[in-house]
């Protein structure tokens, strides 16, 4: 918003210091904040928190991540844009790796990839952390091909895109087994020469720094693309608002 010439009114960590701590519902907060702003960007701890906000907001609402296993739509948009800049989206094969049941970025990317033709996804994760049924049901409903895997070595050589995310050690019994889901210079050697490596960042041990120099590593470019994609989204919403009649009258 600053790059577009606007200003930001921040309420970060609102659950700690604001009226949220006294039990004020998100709907009431959004109605009030909407009177001070042209766009609301919300990250909410509850699943569907952003949807609740959007249903009552007098201004556009952007979901910046909701719930512990909800959605993160703007991240998915910048992920898709990063891929699009390198290759066609139709016909992609994508390995999505990590903590998928609660991975908002992974869930949103899977949902968005399903909009394109002949896409195939490989969900690579410990069985207890696999993608939730709601996303899998959506893929089934739209005849999108996917496979559930627990071994990265089975798919790494055949995919066009590797989308790596973290796995929190406290969520698995065998911490040493997390190496099976990590990418390092040895793993990269088995990938296609023109494959892409993406990560929503920040990273921990799941993506070794030795991969950074590889020309297929797109994650820093991916992060930079996030600035432009989100600027474009804000611009679209603000232009739409300026052309719409005011809800308060002339």
Topology, please?
Layout: H1 14-17, H2 26-33, E1 40-44, H3 49-56, E2 61-66, H4 73-84, E3 93-97, H5 104-113, E4 120-124, H6 133-141, E5 145-149, E6 161-164, H7 185-188, E7 196-198, H8 219-243
Parallel strand pairs: 1-2, 3-4, 3-6, 4-5, 6-7
**Biggest sheet, open or closed, and with what strands and sense?**
5 strands, parallel
Total tally of structural domains: 2
Query: CATH H level of the largest domain: which superfamily?
Result: Aspartate/ornithine carbamoyltransferase
Reported by name, the CATH topology of the largest domain is Rossmann fold
Structural class category: alpha/beta
Tally of individual helices: 8
What is the total tally of β strands? Answer: 7
Which band does the percent of strand residues land in? Answer: 5-15%
Rg on CA atoms, Å: 20 Å
Query: Span from first to last CA?
Result: 27 Å
Second-tier CATH architecture of the largest domain: 3-Layer(aba) Sandwich
CATH class of the largest domain: Alpha Beta
Strand order of the largest sheet: 5-4-3-6-7
Which range best describes the helical content: under 10%, 10-25%, 25-40%, 40-55%, 55-70% or over 70%?
25-40%
Order of helices and strands: HHEHEHEHEHEEHEH
- Based on CA inertia axes, which overall geometry fits? globular
Mean of residue pLDDT values:
89
Low-confidence stretches: 16-23
